[in-house]
Write a structure and sequence with these properties.
The complex is a heterodimer of chains A (636) and B (109). With 636 residues, chain A is mostly helical. In chain A, 77% of the residues lie in helices and 0% in strands. Chain A is built from 27 helices and no strands. A two-stranded antiparallel sheet of chain B has the order 1-2. The chains are: A mainly alpha (636), B mainly alpha (109).
Amino acid sequence: MNLQNRKALAWGLVGLLPLVCMTAYAQGAVTQEYRWITFTVFAAIIALTMYVTYVASKRVKSASDFYTAGGGVTGMQNGWAIAGDYLSAASFLGIAGLISQYGYDGFMYSVGWLVAYITVLLVIAEPCRNIGRYTLSDILAYRNNPKAMRIVGALSVITVSTFYLTAQMVGGGVLVKTLIGIDYEISVIAVGVLMLAYVLFGGMVATTWVQIIKAILLVIASLVLVILVWLPYGFSLPGFLQDVVADPKVQARVATLIGDPAKTMTAAELGQRFLEPGLYFKAPIDQISLGMALVFGTAGLPHILMRFFTVPTAQQARKSVVWAMAIIGGFYILTLFLGFGAAKFVGPAAIASVDAGGNMAAPLLAQYLGGGADSFLGNFMLAFVSAVAFATIVAVVAGLVLAAASAIAHDLYVGVYHGGDTVPPQQQVRAARVATVIVGAMAITIGIAAKGQNVAHLVALAFAVAASANFPCVLLTLYWKRCSTGGIVAGMIIGTVVAVGLTLVSPNVTYPKAVRAASQKVFDGEAAKRSAIEQALLSTDAEAASQARINLTALDKAVAKAKDDVAKVAGRERSFLGLEQPLFTLKNPGIISIPLGFLAVLLGSLLFRDRRSEELWPEVYARQNTGILASKASAH
Amino acid sequence: MAAPPTIDWNAVINDPRFQALHRKKQGFLTGLMIFSVIFYFLLPIGAAYFQDLYKIKIWGVVNFGLVFALLQFIVAWGVAFYYSRRAGSEFDRLAREIAADYEKGKVAT
């Protein structure tokens, strides 16, 4: 990296300072008096990652350095980086929140995110390392028509990354706003600018280290919280859960969730219900469909696939998945305690009153365990967890942007526009940096444009497209002799179109009539709830009165949201595609789109035979199994 | 991107050692993959259709459902451990032998 670049990096750093300073004056979960702690912790984490980027920037000279850290990452390092790439805010805050609100179902949801790595380990990681180079399309282009593969591969990578990126940017903006109170737009820009600094200057080297640092911080933060939660019970699982189900706040939550049947249940039965399935997942087929998207989609996520090109051998690729599974699985088990701990100590209603999705469960638990909202330690821990959440979003976004940028620069610009490797190395790196800026700017723009939209389902959609298009294509080109260019093109197009198309006519889209009906329910129940709460407010029991105050805030919020929802769809009768109700009733398209994606590759290959695909089959098959020339492949 | 012409790929995949490696690996991986997928989907399917089973308390308030969900983690880790041990002790050695021979051009075809 030359002097000019270093100067630019330094100015970028200085430019970030006002953003950090804003945290000192904003309104969020942290009280004014302790805002400086948040400021200090954020600044420390940003300084550390910027230092890493600075060191990394000196090592990024070639395209291989930029895309794959020169293939010099060890299996253990890559395992931590995969965990850092994968554990998004959705898993860190989202799953803990889901458990705190719905108990067992939240924990069950986390299992699929780990099992997904078995597919990655058994059929994807090692062959991809053996025959791939920088991108998903490299694997497809090995035996099939390179130009066609680079075009469909890049389009699919950009589609999947954009869905995932939008969910991360919007989720990140909302999260930073809730945690530390800076404006949504500024939060989105801060995430975008930081991520750009890492990727632009440090390429994959910096991205890898930012992901490793973030994963370590995440594990440390969670471990500390879990020890504090679990220690009083002498690390006994039944002892801890016994206390959770005996808690009146948890029992009240279950009663609200199940409605009328609760009237005939004892308090103990209500509490126990929190540990049983069915409070969140009501449609089994939908849940299986989501499970399929997770289990097969992870192996087709471009930013995860890309991580396997950073290690030198198939053995290291295998080792990195085993490390990643240990870290990711261990983390979800910690989440079990974070979620149930938050339900017991903070209370489901209090968590939902700050954020209806439950995302604040872990941060609020941290604040409580440190001594509460008025204590130094409580605010320090809240600040630390908030900073980790921020680092989490930035690290995931960096991985996604790098994957999308490599598809644009390596596949479309070098591969399709210039027709191969004739582009000089310097120009390849410049193309990669330009593509990074384009994707980064796009991420910030989409993030701001999508303000206030419900984008949570976009993560599930990204997994569904990856499972329906990328996964069948990669799997069959690696393992099926007859697989051809025609099959891959058909699979990519049909998998993507079916997954996206079904989602557009699914319940994920806004249907004005359904919104009005749901809001009407809230208005109808308001009076009865309000009088019950007013009754409780007069109670002499301090505990009951404080619970009632929390319930009152939650009710006010729910009513305000319902009014807001109705206002948003005012004057409309149909969804944006002109539907009164969903055509496809499942929220996740996987169960239909994944088999169709496979079928498309099969039929396309059988209908359109390709001589090149068949001639190169022995080479692909020998190389993916034995790793012949794999080390040379990464060197050229 | 094409590999150096010194390697006859057809000879590699017709090499009895490669075919032995391929057979062992294919069978092992397919079996493990099918087992893992079926075992995982038992969790959501059971949660939907066998709720009474999931409610049975096994260890204090800890019920079958929680134990089964925790078992999923153990089994996933077990599969990963089992596979990497088998691959490390057997597949890697066979693959290295074949790769070394052909990369050096020892096998005349």
